[in-house]
Design a protein that fits this description.
With 76 residues, the protein is an all-alpha fold. It has two helices and no strands. 0% of the residues are buried. The model has no long low-confidence stretch (mean pLDDT 81).
C-alpha cells in the first residue's frame, strides 16, 4: 500500500512537472510570436488559465481519492 501511494505521488509529481513545462512553453511561444494572427486573445488566455486550474484540481482530487480508497482497504 505504501509503495502504491508513493508510486501514485511520484506519478502525480511527474505529470505536474510535464504540465508546468508545457504551460511555460505555451506562454513563451505566445510572448515571442511576432505574428498577431498567431497570438491568443485575452479571452482565450483567460479560458486556458481557467481550464488549467480545473485540470490541476481534478488531478489533486483523483490522487486524494486513490489514497483514501487504499487506506480504507487496509485491514484494521
Amino acid at each position: 500500500m505504501n509503495f502504491y501511494l508513493k508510486t501514485a505521488k511520484n506519478e502525480r509529481e511527474e505529470y505536474k512537472k510535464k504540465y508546468e513545462d508545457k504551460v511555460k512553453q505555451l506562454w513563451s511561444n505566445q510572448k515571442s510570436s511576432n505574428n498577431n494572427n498567431e497570438k491568443l486573445s485575452a479571452i482565450m488566455i483567460e479560458l486556458i488559465n481557467q481550464r488549467c486550474d480545473k485540470i490541476s484540481e481534478r488531478i489533486k482530487c483523483i490522487y486524494k481519492f486513490k489514497a483514501q480508497l487504499h487506506q480504507s482497504s487496509l485491514p484494521n
